[in-house]
Target: Glycosyltransferase family 4 protein
Amino acid sequence: MPTKLLIHAWRVEKKGNAYYLPFSHWLYLQEIVQYYDEVVLIAGCRHLAADASTEDLPITGLGNIQVHELPMGSGSYLSSVRYFPAFVQAYRQIKGVTTYYSRYPTPFGWLQKCFAGKAQRIIHYVGDPVDVALNNPNFSPLKKRLLVSAFAIENQLYLWACKGAQVYTNGHHLAERLARKGITATALISSTLTAGDFYYAEKNIHPETAKFIYLGYLRTAKGVETVLRAFARYNQDYPQSSFTIIGSGEFEHELKNLVADAQINNVHFLGKIEDRAQINQALRSADVFLFASLSEGSPRVVLEAMANGLAVISTPVGSLPKCFSADSDIVFANFNDPEDFYNKMRALTENNQGYNALRSAAYVKVQDATIAQFIKRIFHR
Model:
């Protein structure tokens, strides 16, 4: 019997007749198509002008892939509500699906339960917007309550849809939270690592010239302000040290203002980089990866840093405490605590032997955390 997978997870860009996905999603799709005869994407679509440039990758040639276009709002859950009838219509129109796959918190992914019948269903929890809202220090108590209340119905509908579905989570903490609600879920370590992403070179770190780096979205919940303030302290002690920030997002302007107002030296904003070779080169040129996120599933960027031979200082977010040992293959620092990050940065860079032992142990531990194994656990039957 032919197999047909419906994916309700991502947004796409379209230029001419070609559809494009960001690199990480493109990698996922490249692996997923190996397991099905046909794949259909239900996706919000942003149309590009013929002469527009994009850093995303075309899905043409990956396999038998169809895209069912949906209107796309600003990207937030609330902006998608008005398009709910289009989501329902899409599920009604797409026939012959043997497996449904939805990624929480993608809006209305719970619709699979309404239309799947006896088909296989997969729900994949990749984050927790409620946790993000509650732990964001820049949100007032009122705003937190409003955001959580606005998402409450959607959250309950996903829990309802989990009944009878195979449920996976990015990280053990999400699986544990679902277990408290009577949902059995399999915890996974999300990864986009391929063989070419692994690199380890001998190096000695010097605190005077230490190179720190961050890779990811520039959002309040990512804690970049925390590590910037920590680096400001460190750079006062060691003026030749540097901090490279790769990524973009709605908080980018505020972060640049912070750097200017606080007169923090040697901070370099490189913007969004999609080319994997460029990202790997930037990581390999650095010494320490800083990550102060407030809420995650299993943060892929930490694995990417470790695979490229970096030492990591991070908040104990998501699956990290379950997967890595404090002070053996990762250094944990407190949430929203620039002072603790600063102290950990000093301690790590001023101990060359400990620095190399930490990054070596981390490099060994991530050897099996590849995208092929991650996708296989979800889709292989």
User: Anything to note?
Assistant: Residues 141-162 form the longest helix (22 residues).
